Structure formats: structure tokens, C-alpha cells
Amino acid sequence: MFNLPNILTLSRILMIPLLVGSFYIEGHVGNWIGFAIFALAGITDFFDGYLARRLKQSSKLGAFMDPIADKLLIAAALMMMVAVERISGLSVLAAVVILCREFLVSGLREFLAELKVSVPVTKLAKWKTTIQIFALGFLLVGEASPKAIPSIEIGDACLWIAALLTLYTGYDYLRAGLKHMD
């Protein structure tokens, strides 16, 4: 039940309170700690999938927990950055679009799983996730970045690109799912 990939996934969930806690550390050190936790969570995300395939330790528990861990981590990062106004103004809309799509696609996948219909992840959705991760990384560092790197501007731009891709891929998944909702 609890093999190494599942333990890595669980560790990612347990990192979420640490990530949230990093927002309460004053000064730039909090930004860098939050970024480090987020990066470590990303590394565990890579290795849990890699090890599950390599060690042939895929499990139903892992298949269930992995996407939930990802969504919880993204949601916590977005919510905290909106709360402390690292994401502000119209960029809050991009964060809301991303959150809404995550819940919509999760619900759709759950519904379709009951019908024994698989919804594979598209390449564009993988690109969306990658750009979203970069956006969150830059925004987590925020004003703590070296002056030569405009982290907030890069993060905001990537967040908007991710939001646009989110709309497109969310619509794509919804359109595919609607075919099975008679």
C-alpha cells in the first residue's frame, strides 16, 4: 500500500502547510523558503511517477493521490499569493481561471472514470502545467529575486499564458467529456 512513490506523493501533501507557513516568515528569506519547498515538491512529483514506472510500483492509491497532491499544492500557492497580494489586480482573474479549471477537470475525470472512460492528458495540457509551474516559481520568489531578474513580471506573464492555455485545454476536456453525458 505505502510504497516509495506513494510516500513521495504523501510528502508533497505534507509540504503544503510548510509552503503556507513560509508566507508568514518576514523578509526575503520567506520567499526563498517558499520557493525551495515548491521546487522540492516538484522534484517529488517527478520522482514519484518515475519510480512508480521504473520499480513497477504503480498503485490505485498513487493514481488517486498524485493528481490531488498536485492540485492542492497549486491551489495553496495561488491562494496564498493572492492573500498576500503577490498576485493582485487583474492577475487574480488568471489565478481564478486556473483554479476553476482544475476543479472542473477533476470532477469531469471522476465522472468519466465511473463510466470507464479515460481522458488522457494532452501535450498542450502538459505545456500549460509547465508554464504554470514556472509562473508560480517566479511569483514565489517575487521581490526577493536579483534586480536583473524581473520575477514578478515574468511570473505574471507566465500566469496569464497558463490561464489562456487553461481555458483552451479545459474547453477541450469538457467537449470530450460532454460526448459521454447523455
Automatic annotation (TrEMBL):
Entry EC number(s): 2.7.8.5
Chief localization: membrane
UniProt-listed InterPro entries: CDP-alcohol_PTase-I (IPR050324), CDP-OH_P_trans (IPR000462), CDP-OH_PTrfase_TM_dom (IPR043130), CDP_ALCOHOL_P_TRANSF_CS (IPR048254), Phosphatidylglycerol_P_synth (IPR004570)
One Pfam family, short name: CDP-OH_P_transf
Keywords of the record: Lipid biosynthesis, Lipid metabolism, Membrane, Phospholipid biosynthesis, Phospholipid metabolism, Transferase, Transmembrane, Transmembrane helix
Subcellular location: Membrane
Cellular-component GO terms for this entry: membrane
Pathway(s) per entry: Phospholipid metabolism; phosphatidylglycerol biosynthesis; phosphatidylglycerol from CDP-diacylglycerol: step 1/2; Lipid metabolism
PROSITE patterns: CDP_ALCOHOL_P_TRANSF (PS00379)
Domain of life: Bacteria
MF (Gene Ontology): CDP-diacylglycerol-glycerol-3-phosphate 3-phosphatidyltransferase activity
Catalytic reaction list: a CDP-1,2-diacyl-sn-glycerol + sn-glycerol 3-phosphate = a 1,2-diacyl-sn-glycero-3-phospho-(1'-sn-glycero-3'-phosphate) + CMP + H(+)
UniProt membrane topology term: Multi-pass membrane protein
Transmembrane segments: 7-25, 31-51, 72-104
GO biological process: glycerophospholipid biosynthetic process
Family: Belongs to the CDP-alcohol phosphatidyltransferase class-I family.
Name of protein: CDP-diacylglycerol--glycerol-3-phosphate 3-phosphatidyltransferase
Organism this protein belongs to: Emcibacter nanhaiensis
Gene: pgsA
